[in-house]
Amino acid sequence: MRQIPVDTSTAMVMVAQPPSPKIANRQTGEVATDRETGATLMTIDVMFVMDGNAEILNLTVPETGISGELAMGTPVALTGVVARPWENEFNGQKRHGISFRAVAVTSLTAAKAA
Question: Right CATH number for 4-113 from 2.40.50, 1.20.58, 3.60.70, 2.30.30?
Fold first, then answer.
């Protein structure tokens, strides 16, 4: 699967919705895990502002990559962000989009306090 690196160095990023477990199967409530490490996967919505444009991105992050208090509005740094195009078919309808994954999301508030 193709992965496209995302440069976040010049963007302002803050938490829009705090992290929550990523659900792999909505019927059973099974929580998604990383295939390589077995770590629980979390989703977090961030507001990504660059060049005067703001977008809400839904990121998937391993639970081990989340550090600091990530309440709504907290400025954060993103590490190792990649975009992955996806496509599937369900009940004869094709859907497609882009998913985003990060290695880590770190609170900048905690870094300033230290």
Answer: 2.40.50
